[in-house]
Amino acid sequence: MTTPPIGQEGGMAAVSDQYMISVLRPFVAATGPVLGGLRDADPFRLGKLAQRRSLELEGPPREEPPATNRRQRVGRFVRRVRGRALDRLATSRLPGTPRWAVMSPEERDHWWVGRVGRFTSAIAAFPGIGGALARRLPVSDILGLSAQGLVICAIAGEHGMTGRDEQVRLLAAVLFDRDLDPQGDAHDAQVERDAADLTGDLHRERSGDGRLRALARAVWRMGRSLFALHDELGRRPQGRWAWRTLANLPVVGALGAYKSERSGLKRAARRAAAWVAREHG
Q: Where is the composition biased (Basic and acidic residues) (predicted)?
């Protein structure tokens, strides 16, 4: 990506609107498959089990014949325990379950904060996700940026705001306190190529560890793309002062950085929901 042009706004140097739009459009375009991957990431197949159990509960109850020996009694006990566990799972807040279908947009917002926050925190433990470049860049800032951007776009989608340039405006307002007016085609060939570079091989990985690693690499690349707006990063929602201070200390710094990013992520989510309500309420 080229060096960002600099403009003057309010007497302070700032990244130009057009350059910011050129960075945010591919990010927004890439959020579709990445958020889909985060929503559907189910390494233990809990979502599928929950859906299957909910369908079983909708059908007529099954009567078991009386147990006549120890083996049958043990089998019945195991089935009962499994059934109770699946009953709890069927009422859990997982995409595709009946509970998810009746959740309010605000409840889904909260779910996205938890899902994205936990995943981006786990990425830091993935060896080699960012390659050699990760050792020269602030990993916490890059993953924090990616998490905030993804949660903001997820919230927009849950509230019915799906237009790409609407989400570009939302990202600019929440992350950088900028009021953008995107011009041109949000779906042009260059945007699509840049978005494909961000998602990488995610579309080829269907399941298992390979998909999780492809998803992790995509999240890293998306955060790195936003890092190109480094002159504006001081404006993004920050964590609480106490956690940011703790992040600078030895030994406990990792905990402080984690807590700070989670706190900043929640602030970004609240700002996004307020912006959507104000603009599209």
A: 53-65
pTM: 0.77
- Number of domain units in the chain: 2
Helices 17-40 and 189-199 pack at an angle, to 10 degrees, of 50
Q: Are 217 and 129 in contact (CB under 8 A)?
A: yes
Q: Quote the pLDDT of residue 251.
A: 67
* Per-residue tokens: 19: 């350059």
Q: How many residues does the chain have?
A: 281
Q: Which residue has the higher pLDDT, 134 or 231?
A: 231
Where is pLDDT greater, at 56 or 248? Answer: 248
Is 209 part of any domain? Answer: yes
Burial of 114 (0-12, 13-18, 19+ CB in 10 A): middle
Domain range for 54 = 48-90
